[in-house]
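Give me the 3D structure for AMP-binding protein.
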Amino acid sequence: MALKRGTQVKIITPASETNEDRFEPHIRWFQDLNGRGLSIENLSRSEVEAYHRRVLWSLLQHASETNPFYEQRLKEAGLTPEEASDPEFFARLSFLTKEDLRGNPQAIVCNPNLAHIHTSTGTTGGKPIYIGHTLNDLYRLDVAPNYPSLMQDTKGTVVGNALPYEMSSSGLSFHRVFQVMQECTVLPLGKGGAYSQPDKALECMLAWNIKTLVIAPSYAVTLAEKAHELGIDLHRDFKLCHLFLTGEGASPALRERIERLWNCPATTLYGSLEVGLIGIECLQHEGFHLTEGHVYAEIVHPATGVLLKPGATGEIVLTSLLRDGMPVIRYKTGDLGYIEEDPCQCGCKLRRLHLRGRLGDQIKLRSGPFSPLYLEQHLLQLAGVGNWYRLIIENGELLVEAEMASPDLNPQLLTAEIEAHLGSIVGQKCSARIVDRVERDAGKARRVHCIY
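Predicted structure for AMP-binding protein (452 residues):
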């Protein structure tokens, strides 16, 4: 018998029945909120903090009973799960690092009944990281919280999912979010694979009159270019209501270009393989509202690990709150940012996270370090610059390689404009080179190329 939309599916595996019972009160709490027409978006700070303490206690009890790695971490801190659920004491627990996960891929397995395993895409270097999920993780715990205002009225719409499905967590993760949590019809478009080339994706999107598209920023540009080649008018032939951008960083200037290309508003999603969905941008575009039903976020000093107060920039440390198979506890992400607690004009009460780049991605020029997205923002503010560029750094010098927005432009004048504008931004002389086509692989340019 087919299930009706909205039916609660209960997934139980024999070995995880006790673990499910442990998380069951939190699932019921979210269901009760939904039944009253509320979500975690509407709650006061004290209510969210009370939830965090309850779920941290459950998570730490689960992890310490099922995993020697986490059991040892609690012993080293001299804490019980109940004590460690207090934020002051929780900060005593040692950090989980990428090296921990790479050194022993199964170090944090708390339930061996894993339904599937994702791996990192390799963009941060080093050995791959693997994160597995139980069926309970995938179909009950991950979709228990929901964020109705931040998901932009996508409930029940047709969604095009143009994220990679192979090995990466992004395609399947958002497939479930929209299909199970938002009760949408999902088109698994993929990202340029053997059966999901851009022309086929566009054909499928047109056939089913999609209203929502979740996609990487660079692939949004690639699909728009392919539509132009095929004579498809994105403004006339598509009636998109919303674009969700994820999988790569995007400056406000690039997001605005994508909004113009597709003729609809776009917001950015911040997530990772290790933690899942971390933050959702609202239409105010003033930071990512933390998905505090799923994650517990801390900001620490990158070198000392000391916990920083809201408003101070440091390294983002995250804990996955609702996860049975391989929960991450106090995971150092390598991302920089700060948390803002002031209310947002959109009405959502969840705190906002402002990203400030990655520790390992800062471009080192003679005049100092710069975030690639900061440079992208200033470069793409120049109307003559096309959507594709590369920043080439050698011995502290910056060379910008860029396409022109129109063949009618004067390349010499645009070169001079780029050099003058970015030179004033970085505080040193820089060079520019106009090219017919920036090299890219599978619809994605390697934005930064460093030679040290």
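The chain is about 35% helix and 25% strand. Let me know if you want a second pass.
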